[in-house]
Amino acid sequence: MPREYIVLVAGPMGAGKTTAIAALSEIPVVLTEAVNTDQARHAKATTTVALDYGEISLGDGDKVRLYGVPGQDRFDFMWRILEKRSLGMMLLIDNGATDPLSDLERYLHHFDTLGARSALVVGVTRRDQGGTPPMEAYHARLGRLGRVLPVFSVDARNAAQVRTMLGALIAMVEAKAAARAHAGAVA
Ligand SMILES: Nc1nc2c(ncn2[C@@H]2O[C@H](COP(=O)(O)OP(=O)(O)O)[C@@H](O)[C@H]2O)c(=O)[nH]1
Ligand SMILES: [Mg+2]
């Protein structure tokens, strides 16, 4: 039977959420950009205020529904609704931000409830614009937090790179489902 995955794309403003969804999607992405009233935090003319939506088929009729969730805390309620339905999350972190490691920690904390049930991969973007902090710093921070997560260096504009990351996420989703089925079988 064809399966359907709901995948959230989260991360701070400017991390590449909309770009990644557009790079992956087979349908024209439903964009909900609006004038950015928070120029102090990020010098972007527009920003996502509701959600971005895209779709990608995986073969065998399986389909992924991609939702870009807003980066600003004031849209918290929407994150809560969507995370209940999602199987996995791609968390994008802008390597060029002031403190990307704190961003990583903050977003992981924010999506704590997603943890056990759902799969999560981290994508570090904008590494073409500067290599600091290095990838090891992300691994070190995750280690300190006791989290075992794959971390990818990705350019959100590069469809092949984003697809590779999505593939890893789907594999994690399936591994978790198999582990749950096994736990159910032995219980
Ligand atoms: N150079 C570079 N630009 C990127 C990368 N990822 C995203 N961008 C650009 O960053 C800008 C903001 O991306 P956007 O998708 O709007 O971020 P969002 O706020 O998370 O939805 C866009 O102009 C993207 O083309 C990257 O890895 N490298
Ligand atoms: Mg966006």
Overview of this protein structure:
It is built from 5 helices and 8 strands. It has 187 residues and is α/β, with parallel strands linked by helices. It has a single domain, classed as P-loop containing nucleotide triphosphate hydrolases (Rossmann fold). The strands form 2 sheets. The protein has a 6-stranded mixed sheet, sandwiched between helices. The longest helix has 28 residues. The protein is globular. The model has no long low-confidence stretch (mean pLDDT 86). The site of guanosine-5'-diphosphate has 17 residues, from helix 1 and strand 3. Guanosine-5'-diphosphate binds next to helix 1 and strand 3.
CATH topology: Rossmann fold
The SSE string, one letter per element, is EHEEEEHEHEHEH
- What sort of overall outline do the alpha carbons produce when their principal axes are compared? globular
| Beta-strand percentage range | 15-25%
| Distance between the ends | 26 Å
The rounded Rg comes to: 16 Å
**How many DSSP-defined strands?**
8
Largest sheet: 6 strands, mixed
Question: Quick one: CATH class?
Answer: Alpha Beta
Q: Structural class, please?
A: alpha/beta
